[in-house]
Amino acid sequence: MTEAQDALPPLFCFGYGFSAQAAARLWQSRGGRVIGTTRDASKLKAMRAENIEALLFDTVPADSLLTAGAILSSVAPLDDGSDPVLARYGSVLAASAARWIGYLSTTGVYGEAEGGWIDETAPRAPTTDRGRRRVQAEDSWLALHHDHGLPVHLFRLSGIYGPGRSALQTVLSGRAQRIDKPGQVFNRIHVEDIATTLWVSWEKPNPGCAYNLADDEPAPPQDVIAFACDLAGVPLPPLVPFEAAQLSPMARSFYAENKRLKNAKIKAELGVSLRFPTYREGLTAEWQTRAKG
């Protein structure tokens, strides 16, 4: 075990969604305690069943934050771009002695690139309200680093998927659409690769840094659905023109931007080796686990 593992401090998670759960499981597997928040009192019991020290978001004791060695926020900004974590706990966080703070953002901060390749040196030029809110939230978190010297790291996530939340579930539920928008591609990132990258960043902190969390192959969404159909033995749904597709506002916002994300920085700086470098490995592993029962 490394020195960091020998004396692993508590991980405090603001928000306990899909990505935070994966990070928590990895932290626990290394022998660390995890504290997590939720706004939904009905989720406390389930979190505690996972050995999470669950707290309601509005009732976090200052000591829980001040004694955490690592702090992760996956809480989205409000409609006005303000960050609810910093609005309520910013003054406490400013006094934190945490060795590592991570904020989960989105690659939507880069905006439209007409299919071009984007790395972390690209200017943030969001073209959606969601992206603009994330830029404002990123700046608020970075202010903790610049103004108080805190070890804040930004992680810009591509489309998140993993067991129970992937194209396989869409296909098996009968809700799959193969949406045709010529030239459109997306990167994805498996939730386990998110957790691994966060862990390695904890071991190799670089405060003030931003990282793209993306797979190796930006791909058209209809290709991913076709691969999932092939795995599951489900007939291909027909191609639907983008303009006629039934999409939620959130899903439609993803199609508003077209870019290819470079992930060289997490590999070169952190030494991350993606377990699921493309959607094929991720969906295949999920299908094999499902088939085993």
Automatic annotation (TrEMBL):
<dbReference type="InterPro" id="IPR001509">
    <property type="entry name" value="Epimerase_deHydtase"/>
</dbReference>
<feature type="domain" description="NAD-dependent epimerase/dehydratase">
    <location>
        <begin position="102"/>
        <end position="213"/>
    </location>
</feature>
<keyword id="KW-0520">NAD</keyword>
<dbReference type="InterPro" id="IPR036291">
    <property type="entry name" value="NAD(P)-bd_dom_sf"/>
</dbReference>
<protein>
    <recommendedName>
        <fullName>NAD-dependent epimerase/dehydratase domain-containing protein</fullName>
    </recommendedName>
</protein>
<dbReference type="Pfam" id="PF01370">
    <property type="entry name" value="Epimerase"/>
</dbReference>
